[in-house]
Amino acid sequence: MTKLALGTHPFLLGFEQLERLVERTAKSGNEGYPPYNIEQTSENSYRITLAVAGFAEDDLSITVEDNALVIRGRQADDSEGRVFLHRGIAARQFQRSFVLADGVDVGEAIMENGLLHVDLTRAIPERIVQTINIKKG
């Protein structure tokens, strides 16, 4: 029996991009920083929360690029003229990407107590029934 790839299954017409999407997600390079939560806040809405302690709003950028939510953080190095006996909190930059399904929109972003909350909503597509006429050949 021949094993079919998901995107080439005969009942999944037009889903060839799904395999590329899965590969892109696997290669997104997200390490473990910063830690994050994803929660479902209602039937059609979600919230991504990133722990960004030490970052100001101006240190963060949120963009949507090629159906991916990309959150970047870059802190300015303010250590000039300071003498650290121990430095466990480093100014560290990051990039965290989340692939968005079609119909998912990014809402507002809120900073609260060192946490960045980004709200997402999923639009419910209208159910369409289309009748196709059969012509005599």
Task: Give an overview of the whole structure.
It is built from one helix and seven strands, in the order αβββββββ. The chain has 137 residues and is mostly beta strands. The protein has a domain of 82 residues: Immunoglobulin-like (Sandwich). Strand 1 and strand 2 form a beta hairpin. The mean pLDDT is 85.
Question: What's the layout of helices and strands?
Answer:
Elements (H helix, E strand, L loop, with lengths): L15 H11 L9 E7 L2 E7 L8 E6 L2 E6 L20 E6 L4 E9 L2 E8 L15
Antiparallel strand pairs: 1-2, 2-7, 3-4, 4-5, 6-7
Pfam families: HSP20
Keywords: Stress response
Family: Belongs to the small heat shock protein (HSP20) family.
Q: What's this model, at a glance?
A:
This protein is mainly beta and 137 residues long. It is built from 1 helix and 7 strands.
